[in-house]
Each structure stands twice: as C-alpha cells, then as structure tokens.
Records
---
Amino acid sequence: MGLSLQHIDKILGREIHLKDVNLEFESGSRTVILGRTLAGKTSLLRVMAGLDRPSRGKIIVNGKNVTGASVRKRSVAMVYQQFINYPSLSVYKNIASPLKIAGVKKTEIERQVHEAAEMLHIEDLLDRLPAELSGGQQQRVAIARALVKDAELLLLDEPLVNLDYKLREELRVELQDIFKKGKAIVVYTTTEPTEALMLGGNIVVIDEGRILQTGSTAIVYRHPATLKVAKVFSDPPINYLKGTIQGDTARIGQHIEFPIEDYMKCLFDGSYMFSVRSNHLFLSRNAKEDAEIPAKVELTEINGSETFIHANYDGSRMVVQEKGVRSVHIGVEITIYVNPHYFFVYDGAGALVASPSGGVFDAKLK
Amino acid sequence: MKVKKKTIGLVVYFILLMLPIYWMLNMSLRSNADILAFFTLYPKNITFANYIKIFTDSSWYMGYVNSIIYVALNTVISLSVALPAAYAFSRYQFVGDKQLFFWLLTNRMAPVAVFALPFFQLYSTIGLLDTHIAVALSHCLFNVPLAVWILEGFMSGVPREIDETAFIDGYSLPRFFITIFIPMIRAGVGVTAFFCFMFSWVELLLARTLTVTNAKPISAIMTRTISATGLDYGLLAAAGMLTIVPGALVIWFVRNHMAKGFALGRV
C-alpha cells in the first residue's frame, strides 16, 4: 500500500522540470526531498498532489491509477512555502474548512480544530484573521489545516524557508513529533542538508529534475553515491581535490601525500577525486596521520557559533568549518589538517568508489 | 514660506475645480427671472421651486428612477458576466487568450455613436425598445470589457496557491469562488461596480436613442428645459445638482481603492 510514481516526466515547453522519476512511498513513511532551488522539488510535489498532470508516466495510489484524477478526489494535504491561508476567514474557520467541506459534524470539527491548534500552539489565535498574525503563526495555521484533513498524503513544500532562524528551529522540532504520530505519507522538501538530517526517515536527492539517489537519510549522508549528491547534501559545500592513488600512497596536488586507508585498498591505481566535508577539516593537528594542506585564506564568515574559513589550495576552493568565533586574516597562509580516513573517493565520472566506514560518522550525525 | 505657497496653490486649484459646481448650485436656488436679471455671487432670494418641481413632477423624477434602474441592471449584468470571465483570463491559458483579452479592450476604442443605429434597429426588431434592459444591455458594450480588465488585475494579485489550497481542501470551483475568492477581491468588485455605474450614469447617446418615454433617462429629460419660450436655467441647474449626488455617494464608498481601479487593478 502506498504511493508510487512510475516514469514521471514533466516538460513545459522546452524546459524539463522532471525526467523519468520513479519513486515508491509507503504509508506512514517520512521522506525528505533534498535539492537546490529549481531542482524540481516543487514540480514533483505538484505532480504528486495532482495539481499538475505529468507529461508522461503513471501515479499509482493504493494500487489504483490516479494519474489524471482531480486533486479534489484525492486524499492530499499540502503546505506551501508562502503562507497560504484564506485571508477572509478567521483562523478557526481556516483550520475547519477541509472538515466543513467533508461534511464532518460541528462538534467533531470543534474538537479536531482545537486539537490541531493546541498541537501547533495557536489556540489563543483562533478568532483572529490570518493577516493579523506573524509569519510563523500564519504558517502554523496552514500546517494545522493540512493536519486536520488527515489525508493519506501530506506534502510540505519548504514550509520553514520563509521563517526566521529561531522560529524555524522551533517548528522543525515540533514537526518531527507531529509527523511521528500520523499514518500518512509525509513528503517534505528542503534545500538544507541539516534540515534533512534532523527529519531523518528517507531521502530523495534531486537535481535538475532527475533523481540522483534515494535511501535512508543517514545512509545517503554517509555514502553519497556521486559527487553531485555529495555537493547537494553538504552545507557548506563539500570540498573536493583531484588526486591519484599509486600503490599504497595517495597524492593530492604537488605537496600532499598520505598512505591510503584500508577502505581505499581495493582501488586500482589511477586518478580520483578526494572529497571531504568541511566539518572534517581542522586548523590544528588532531592525529599524527593527519594530512597537511597548505592554503591561502580568501574569506572568513562567522555563522552563529561557527566560523567558515574559505581558503584556496592549488586553485581549488576549500571551506573549513571551525567551532567558535575565529578571526583569520585574509591572505594569510594556513595549514589545513585532515584525517585521510574522512575522504570519500570518487572516480573520474563522479561515482563513489570508496567511502569511510560508517562508525565514525554515527557520532557526527547527531 | 514653502508650505504657504503650496497651500495657496491648492486653494486656487480647489476654487477653479469647484467654481462650476458652485455656480450650478447658485443658479439652482434662484428663479429664472432672477438669473437673467442680474449677476450675483450668491443667491439673494433663495427659492427651492426648481427642486420642488423635480420632486413633484413625475415626468421629472421618473427620469432619475429610470436612470437608476438601468444603471443598476447594467452593473449587475456587467459584474456577473465579468467575474467568471476575468477569473478565466487570470487563471487559465488557452489558445488566443491574450488576443481575446486585448480584443475586449478594443471595444472601447470605437465611439459609442457608431453602435447607436445598429442597436436601435436590433432592439426595435425584437421589441426591446424603450425598456430599461435595452439600455442596460447596450451599456455592457463598454462596461463588460472594462470590468473584465479591472477584475483581472485584482484577481491576478491573489496567489494561485490559494485556489489550489481550496481545491485540495475539497472546495468545488463555484463554492470556492463565492465563499473564498470574491470576499478576497471585494475592493476590486467595489471599484468595478463604481466604474460601471459611472460610465452608465453619464452615457447619454445610447440611453436616449433606445428609449422613448417609459425608460427615458434623466439626461434626456434635462433637454426638455430648452423650449420655444427659452431656456429654463434654474430647473436645469437643479436637475444637474441632483445628477451629481448618486455619483458622489458611490465615490465615497470606493474612495480608498480608486487609484487601483484607474490602473485597472494593476498596482
């Protein structure tokens, strides 16, 4: 039972929005669709909801083909990136509207609306109009309306993106609990890797309308199958350096040499891409096997309690994510330390050929 | 000093603007003999005889009633036709939609006089001559395109996602349209109604051509003041004053949304 998309294409004029999408969603599952802006996330949700008809392919819900069925006949709820509510109705009526249309009894509507409002902490606002609420509250109303419908398919299109940082964190935590309670298929799109990791469940990585990788979020994070996935699923963007493996030694650029790790032993000699996430680069030595990368600082940005140091090594841009607020002057030569056992190794075509074992990453995931 | 200059300028402008209306009011409160006898800046012997005549003579006040009936009819018809049309233009894409939309506006480019004769022939053939509905329908010629354009502008300002949310919630299109959509663009509907009212209220040529006695509009009746015995200035001025009143009343209700209406809803 569940929802399956089969060979879905969505082409508008000459623009390809989706190309050959095949996905399965089981009832009660949570799926995050991760992709950059314009990757086709919204197009995919709209096709799933039935708002747009795919140019090709089938949508099967519980064994029934619903490809051309009107959105009204489907059991779908959707939350948009913009805060979409009915401006002329009070918050109470906004939340109650899907129930009212479905012909639910008045007392039952009241009970369910209050329940949803309580869950999203908007009980005090039920008499107000949406325009009198803050952005975060408006989005809570939209989410409450989607939840009371109790649809089989709950779609959230970057619901937190227009909220400020604090509210986003808050709502993200709450949403996790809410999703766990439901039996619906929850599909959630985001551009942020951290958000995807927090929500857990399954992940679909999408780029330029094509599915790049699917699977459990934690596994995909640990084994990004292609360099593209690694780029999409890393924030700040993943670092990658051209290098070679010869016998038992790996060499990156002119200066860096290190003995290869066990998981790289199966690789043939040749040239590869060595890729490492910013949080595994350090400005100080942590272990004696650490490789040293001499680089020149180009930019530092302070992001909350972290500092991102953008540096240049041999023409490749690298980003070091350091804890705490650091001031590093632009133009200074620094040495970046990286433990070789954090390297993902990709072949010339960008496919993952060796990845570090998961054990070390588990701690980092939390 | 600067503020003063501005104030003076505004006062002068306001006087220029209000002078003809004041003069009409001045004349409407004087008798004909008085008007013709001497010049005065304000009426010395105020008389309400002109107004009393309009309110007691049925051939006079029926003019206002007729005008109001066909104007109201026209506003209702224009809105009920233009609302769905504007929704279609704002939400759907179909072959030739842009051309059709522009063609609507071109209807306003021809002088109304061009249509007077064909309308007269058509309406007399099907026996609609001298009815309120005849005038109301003929005024749709220029009011429906205008209403579609204004409403389309207001409707395009409403995010499409609201429509979609409603359909996801299970609303049917008519139910969504009436209970959710129209309340959202009520300012636009008000402004559109005002424009329909205004154009229909001031239009003289079609209204006069298509009516004989039963549905004769006030503007046509006002021409009766010209007779062999001369011009009845006082009565004409009083009728003119009363003609301004409905327009002023309607303007009051939509005063905050007027600018958006003149920009065809596209602000």
---
Amino acid sequence: MVAQQLPATPRASRARHILGYWRHPVAQAVLKAFLTVFVTTTITFFLIRLMPGNPIDIKIDELTKDGLMTYQEARAQAASLFSIDLDKPVLEQYVSFIGNLAHGNLGYSFVSQGTPVTAIVLAVLPWTLFSVGTGLLLSFSVGVFLGLFAAYNRNTRADHILSLGGSIISAVPNYFIALLIVIVLGVELRWVPITQMRGATSSGIQPGFTFSFIGDVLFHAILPVSVYFLASVGHWILGMKSATINALEEDYVSAARARGLSDGRIMTAYVGRNAVLPLVTQLAITAGLAIGGSIIIESYFVYQGVGLRLQAAVTQRDYPVMQGILLMVTLSVVILNLAADLLYSRLDPRIGRAGGATGT
Amino acid sequence: MTPILSVRDLSIDYRTRRGPVHAVRDVSFDIEKGETVAIIGESGSGKTTLAVSFIRLSPRSARITKGQILYTNDRETVDIQTLPDDELRQYRWSECAMVFQAALNSFNPVINIWEQFADTARAHGMKDSAKIHARAQELLDLVHLDPDRILKAYPHELSGGMKQRVLIALSLLLEPQLIILDEPTTALDILTQRSIIDLLGQLRKKLGFSLIFISHDLSIAAELADRMITMYAGTIVERASVTDLFYRPRHPYSVGLLRAVPRVSGAMGSVASIPGSPPDLIRLPSGCTYVPRCPLAIAACAEREPDLVPVDTPNHEARCIRWKTVAEQVGTAEVAVAEKIATA
C-alpha cells in the first residue's frame, strides 16, 4: 500500500504493469489450469506405482516360468528392456519423469517395445474427443432446443412427454444404455451390425477427405455417440426448461414485450440467451465426466479410443502409457473447462470484464 | 376533442384457487392529449393491474370481465382488447410506452444498451442503424447522459438513476402519445428522485406527450400531475384536479393518504397512518369498502357501495355519501396540511 502511494519510478510502474497481466482473468484461468494439470499428473504418477504388481515382476514371471533363467538373470534382462529403472526410489523416478515431460517426452511403452507413448496417445485420443464431443454437442443443442420448447409450451402434452422422458432417460447410467444397445439392438433384434461397427474405422480404408472415409468414421462412431447423446440429453432438456421458465418471469422479458419486440427476438436474445448461461458451465463438467466414462462405453463397442487403450495399459501395467493417457485426458478436460469459462465470459458481460463504462 | 385514452367500466379479475380476485372494478376515466394524470393509492389497490391492461400485458391469470379500453390517435380509435397481435405489437411503445415499476431490471443483462435501443427501433420498422444511433444519441442527450458511453455500456455498469434515465430516453424513442410510468422513482434515493421528476417535467413541456403517473407518493404525484385519481380496493374513490385533491379532498381515504405524508417541517406525531388494512378482494363487503377503516362511517355506509358522485367543486367526484361531512372537517385542518405538502 505504502509503495503504491509513492511516486512511481518508470521501472516500478513497468513491473506493476507486468504484474497487472497476471491479474487478468484469462491469465489467472490459464495459471489455474496449468496447476490443475501438474497436481493431477503428480497424483496419478504415485497412484499408478501404488498398484499391486509392476511390469518387471510380470516380465520376470514370464522369463523364469520355463526354468531356463535364474531369477537374477531374468531380472537383469527385464530391467534392460525398460527405459525406467524401477529399483530407483520413486521420488527419483518422479523427478526424471517430470524432467522428460518438460521436454515433451512421455517415454516409451513397456509392452509395445520402442513405441513412443506420444504416438500411442495421439493415435487414440482424437477418436475419443471426436465421439464424446459430437455426442455432447448434439445432446446440448437438441436438449436446449427441446427444453426451450417445453418451457414455452408449459403444461401441454408435448411438455409432459419431454419432461417425463427427460427425467427417465437422465436417470439411466450411460453404461446401461450401452449394454441395452448391444444386447437388445445388436444381439436379440439384430437391427444393428455391432460386429461390423467395431473399431474406429474399417480395416483397409484409406484416411483422407473422401466421402467413403468420413462416412466410415461416422458409421463406427454412431453407437458411442448415441450413448453419450442419450445419457445427457435428458439433463439438458430439464435444465433448459427450468432455466427458461425462470427467465420468462424476468422483468426484462415483460419490458421487452412492452417495447413491442417480436416473439422470436424475445425468445432468442432475451429468454434463450439468459437461460442457457448456467448450462454452459455444466457443459464442461459433463464433458469431463463423459471422457472418464468413455472407458466403459468404448470397451462395450470395442471403439478404439482412449478408454479402450487405457484399459489394456492397466492390465499390462504399462506405466508410461497409463501415465500418458491420463495426462492427455486431464489436459483435454482442463482445456475444455478453460474454453467453457472463456465462452461464458463472452456470453455474460457481467463476468470477467475488466473496466467498462463505469471505468473502474 | 376525443381523449387519447378512454377507459370505460373496466373490471379485471385474477383467477386464484380461492376464487376470482376483483382487482379492478368499474374503473372509468379519460386522458386528454398532453395531460398528466396521477393514479394514487396504497399497494394492492389495483393501480398496476389497471396500467398493464392498457398495453394488454396482464399476467395470464388476469381476465377483463367487463369494459373497454379505447385508444385514439390522429387516424382512428381502436379497442385495445380486440386489436390483432401484429397491430398490438406496433401499438406497444410507438403509441403507448410503459416504464415498469421494476425499472432497474427492465434491461436484458447480456446485451448492451445500444442493442436494446436498436431492437426496439427495428421491431417498429426502423431499419437504418445510423438513424437509430443518431436518435438514441439525441434522446440520451435529452436526459442529460453521455450518449457514447451509455450506448456501449451493459446494464450492470449503470447506476439506478442512470438506468431510469436511459429507460425514459428509450420510452421516447418512437415518440409515443402516451407514456405510463409505474412508480418510476420508488427504487431511487431522494436526490435522484428529485432529478428524475424535474427531468420528466421538462420533457413533458418540451414534447407534449400525455402521462399516466402511478405512485403512492403524493408529493411527487402532485408535482407532475394535472389531475389525480385515488384508488382504493380496485376502484376509483375520488377524482379531482391536483389543487382540489390537496385542498378540498372529499373522500375520507384521500384525507387519510394526505395525513400519512411525512413533512420536513412537521413533528413526528403529525404523520398519521390509516388504521386497519385493505379489504379482501375475493370477498368484498356489500357496502362501501372503506367502512372498516373509516372514522366517519355510519350504518348507511355499509348498506350498498356508493356511486362516484359530483361534489361541491367542478370536475370533482367522490365515492362517499358523507362527502359533506368530510368537507366540513377538512375545511379546518387539512388545508394547512396540504399547504405544507405543496410547498415542501
């Protein structure tokens, strides 16, 4: 306080100027996001190593099984195969892991020898982000539209059907929906060719900007996307309906009517825009949950995304791959949250707008 | 000359589980061009219900059971109740603008003031943004605000008094003949109230619109109004010029309202509240609705509800069979009271 009252020297004022950038809401949000990723990475690093059994033990078991090697030899051979020395204290391992990470190096897979973790993660992550993203954006747009519709047609038959349907479907867990699709539509009724739809693409198809490739990608993504859609659409319908009903009661809506604005303009810019605000924040949270939930969904449909690959890595105790996937998932969720925050401050001028007409 | 707004025998009910609430009963009055009428009365007397019916914006549970609202402009006379939706939309704001009681929440929080001006103008067929902008600047200038700063601002960046001024400017956008102000100064501090009232006085003189001013604050109403209407339990109990209502009130309720006004010079004890509370509007008493609170009530008052009858001064009516007794009592004490209010 005292320092601020003193006449500012040029250097001091420049220092404060730079500090001022760190106080900017966007800078703060980025800083928080960075911290979140760091803390999560640290926790997962130690948690993974607390799991019973490690890849060397599993390899030693394999090598000593037929009695051709002594335990010592097997151990030496197993250790030489892996780039990380698991005898080192965990803290030392952690330091070298973070050091590598700072250089953008996630290490190599234990099981698929010589394959960089980055390549593995980059091969599966886009599929998960694509399917989860498509499912959520679809359910958000459809749910918001239906919720608005239900609120405008309150207490009509359409509203009752949407609200009841919304509460029922939002009470069903996503893995149960996936299970129902596989058993009922795939196995019993045979309406859906679930075996053909396995994987992220059909084998042999050339990636490229062609209709057949895009069509194939969509064909394989239909089932996971429908599950993400169905599991969250009810939530958006109910949320948007109640937010819209509240917004309709607002004074500025009656005031807009008194000004002779058209119903369409009032519905979009006055009611809808205000009602959708709280849902935007929830979108980021839901995205995080859905990416986490993709582990089970992808294994039901054998969809080659992050979830399926993570499951394999866990059974093989492939530490670097697990670590890499978890880091990427964390990063995606954090970036999504950050994007939602920034979007929110764009949508609602009351949030995070430094300065303005009052000039404070 | 035909009045621009003519309300005839208007009755409005609200449907509730207990039965219909008779919020407005048999209200009739006219508003001439350029005239300011103040409607006064305590909360729940039906003032706002009446006002929103003039732009057909009553809540869904409200129903007009009787009567007509006729609006006249240069070309024609229309019945507000039977106006087709698109014509109603044009009528709102371009003919009759209403500034709500909750003026401070009358702006959409997520779009800036300029867009709210533009929305309003475009809804009424003004397409040229440059023209709208020039008009908005001119109006904001008229209400003593800095146009460039205000138009860029979002509602939360403005103070209560600024919002009220912006709203007044916005109400003038389409040059309506009639402006309804519902408690325009209630949420403001006393100095801001003062400046808003002065502003309204200037604008009225300059632009010549008619004004319906709804208030429970008699001293503010007195400054702006030409005529006053006192409402009680959903109906008009007295109708008079401002001078008559202040110096020669003829209904005990108007007298009660005058006595309830605090004055700078008066001692604490000189402010008298009206004992009791307004009647249940679902089960109205058979006689005069003011009987339980009236110091002058006699047996005859409870028999049937009195009509609005002319009293001793011209263009002055009161719904009281004992207005002569009121006149005798008022002759002494109330004139002094009224003088103090008028000079306050």
